[in-house]
Amino acid sequence: MRALEPWVEGPLRTFVAESQVRVALLMTSAGQVVAQHGFTRSLDVMTAAALGAGIVASTRELARETGAGTFGAIVHQGGKQGVFLAPFSMPDAQWIGLAVFGPDTSIGLVQLFFGRMVDDLVKTAPRTLPGREVLPETFEDDLNASLRALFGR
Amino acid sequence: MTDDIAAMTLELAQDPNSLVFLRLAEALRRKGQLDAALTVAGRGAGRYPELADAHDLLARIQADKGDGDGAFDAWTTVLRLAPDHLGAHKGLAFIAYRTGDLGRSVRHLTRALELAPADTSLASAIERIRSMMVSRTEPAAGAPEPAPAEPRAAVDATPTLLFDQQGRVLRGKLERSDGVDASDAVAAALAGVSREAERATRMLELGEWRAIAIESGAVNYELRTPTSETLLLVMRGREVPAGRLARIADKAVDQARQWLEELA
Amino acid sequence: MTAREQMVLDDITRVSGVKSAILVAADDGLVVAESALEGQATEAAAAFAARLAQRLAALTRTLHTPPMSVMLLQATGGQLFVAAGGEGLLLVAVTGNDVNIGEVRLALLDAAGRLN
Questions:
Q1: Neighbour-count burial of C46, counting CB atoms closer than 10 A to its CB (0-12 exposed, 13-18 middle, 19+ buried)
Q2: Is C109's Cβ below 8 Å from some Cβ in B?
Q3: Is C4's Cβ below 8 Å from some Cβ in A?
């Protein structure tokens, strides 16, 4: 497990242990990675963060266009593993959580412990969060900096 | 006495956590109101499962009601919580005597005498039972008819499997209906269940888990944890009601603990 | 949640000592319908009940006995009942220890029959 923000590590570690997800990723709504568990290559994190942020943004837009209000978590249940993707509100930023889980757990448990992790994160978050506006021209630099920190490169 | 009972009943109603249930149930028992006493003591023991005196009281009420199995279970629980509980040793000695298990009766009485050396009635009881054991081939007039040792027999007739948290079989055997030994497969399949149950009861604030009863067609199962490191599964057909299977499981747990202690 | 499901679940919570009755998706552990006293964590009960039922299904599969019809997890501070509730569903009840086990069991089996 690697976290850019040390206070994130405890709640994420508990989430991973209790929900028994295989992979977990926390990022800002702009795709800036905050913490990860289970990824072995920086490229995977980069792809997952970009896709996760994109899916949440496009789903939000779809909800707005169709007048459906807001969507909560997005779950894709595959044959051998499932993907759970959910935006959530931190004190002064929007974050996204992504988890990949196998048959050794269930959506219900992932959702339950994800909710508890969000509560813990909100409680332990410092006043200023890494949720600043990410401009398109600095996005890649920011992402690369995050990945270096997360993978020690 | 009636006024006392009314006052204690009121006190318990106002504070269900009060330990006054011990005195109330005892007062009801002495008055012969055994069903009421059993209800009060049972609820109290449920609230205070680690309180040996609550189970001792429960056992005495059940003994008064003629429920030997229930009394045996409760006094066994007492000894698990408080191995030197004088009342439990006396009670179990009495039950063993009633069921004709004179050796066990003497063992409990001897332990009771060690705990209460000034109690001369214990010494004379031991003497009397020992003399009965000597002349057992010709039972003395008035000696109790040995009752069928159903609890022990019931446990022995029950397919039971003891295994550890890593899914390794320790003792016993379970077979599928076609006679194939499924012990290893069952132990492997259930290895992590204890942790799941522990997590569920912790998260749901239900306390510590004690038993899992499962109904599956014509078969009933009961899963227990004799120790924190082990699991015990007992299995019987539906003709054995779930309540009785639970009692059989209680005894199987005792046997498993004894076996594990001897092994240690 | 349909009105019928609600009625069936309400009937379970009428049994003395029952704190919550939940219809749960067996594979997901998600709440389909619920009837609960205030403050009861039905999401957690649903998720853990489904998980335990999945784990214990391995037992009946291994021993070639029929799927579980009723399961009861007993703990020092309460009990968790789980009954097969029809196609892909479980009926779950959380109770205290001061409860008539036979009555709750029958209420769950009756509810399962009405939902099928």
A1: buried
A2: no
A3: no
